[in-house]
User: Which sequence fits this backbone?
């Protein structure tokens, strides 16, 4: 689910379980911490997160980000 | 990763702090999985993948501040699945009764229903010779109903 890069992290969300609307809403909620891009890849949304500050732990942010998206699916 | 249970649908990696398992969507539909995930969100990170029609993959990853270990989180998740599945099946069974109670409740508060059932309509009398008078008129003996009617007609 997580692909760690040098300055960013990519999260893969299966379209069958996560709606685009929920992802977009989560991006809005996290806009103070990181910027994000959405890409479509067959059955997945690829969300790439870039931290706004260097001291931010991007891995924790991305895990919390995915939990936030899931919570909106309920 | 070793399978944890005899069904071999759970794999756990305690060093990395995560567990993977498969859920049959015919036994636990997606809304039950969402509900169970929601309960554990403050203790674990949960990811869903797979095919919602055939097989759902669930990954549970322990949070750093969580006091529970991966196994405990995993079992808690499975218990929540059963909990919500039972709730759902009970809700299905009681659906008819709930609807009847709700209908009865809504009907009782419906003013039209009360007017029809509790306060039946007063009978209307035929009065071709216009003998009937209002109680107030007959008491005062001032106005007759017929005169009043004629006055009204003349004005028109």
Assistant:
């Amino acid at each position: 689910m997580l692909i760690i890069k040098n300055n960013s992290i990519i999260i893969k969300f299966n379209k069958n379980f996560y709606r685009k609307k929920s992802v977009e809403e989560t991006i809005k909620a996290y806009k103070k911490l990181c910027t994000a891009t959405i890409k479509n890849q067959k059955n997945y949304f690829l969300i790439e997160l870039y931290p706004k500050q260097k001291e931010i732990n991007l891995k924790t942010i991305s895990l919390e980000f995915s939990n936030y998206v899931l919570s909106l699916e309920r | 990763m070793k399978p944890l249970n005899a069904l071999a649908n759970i794999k756990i990696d305690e060093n990395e702090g995560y567990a993977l398992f498969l859920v049959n969507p015919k036994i636990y539909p997606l809304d039950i999985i969402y509900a169970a995930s929601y309960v554990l969100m403050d203790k674990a990170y949960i990811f869903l993948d797979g095919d919602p029609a055939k097989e759902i993959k669930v990954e549970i990853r322990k949070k750093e501040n969580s006091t529970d270990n991966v196994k405990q989180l995993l079992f808690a998740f499975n218990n929540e699945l059963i909990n919500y599945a039972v709730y759902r099946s009970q809700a299905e069974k009681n659906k008819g009764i709930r609807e009847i109670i709700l209908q009865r409740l809504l009907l009782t508060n419906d003013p039209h229903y009360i007017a029809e059932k509790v306060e039946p309509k007063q009978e209307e009398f035929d009065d071709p010779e216009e003998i009937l008078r209002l109680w107030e008129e007959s008491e005062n003996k001032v106005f007759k109903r017929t005169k009043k009617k004629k006055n009204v007609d003349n004005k028109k």
The interface with chain A takes residues 30, 34-35, 37-38, 41, 45-52, 56, 59, 61, 63-64 of chain B (CB under 8 Å).
